Please model this.
Amino acid sequence: MDVGQSTAIKVSMNGDELLRGTDPTDLFVALELLAAEVRAGDMAGIDAGHQALERACDRATEIQSALRDSLRLIGELRLDLSARRVDSIERLARHEDADLAQSMTALPPFPAGLPRSVARRANSDGRTTR
Model:
């Protein structure tokens, strides 16, 4: 998922990445094989099963690290976006305040009889003013 102009993070993973990775069998098959090797007392098979478990743990650690880094980055980006939002609101408010002040100073003097004449015109159109 793109979270910035030049930043992307991984937001999903395939379960096969964790359970199998590049191994020929998945973690569950490796566990079953390891249990069979332990029952048979085959040290070479036990060593192979142990290595398969270590690779699975390494994959889990890598995935966990990647997710932790993604969450950290999202938190940093959230803070950055919040700060940018506040800055934008402040800039907009300054411009609106400046425009309002400039508009008010550029107005011609207010004629004293204008509200009554506007009200009379509105009444002549059939609308009621109060």
About this structure: Residues 122 and 128 are 7 Å apart (CA to CA).
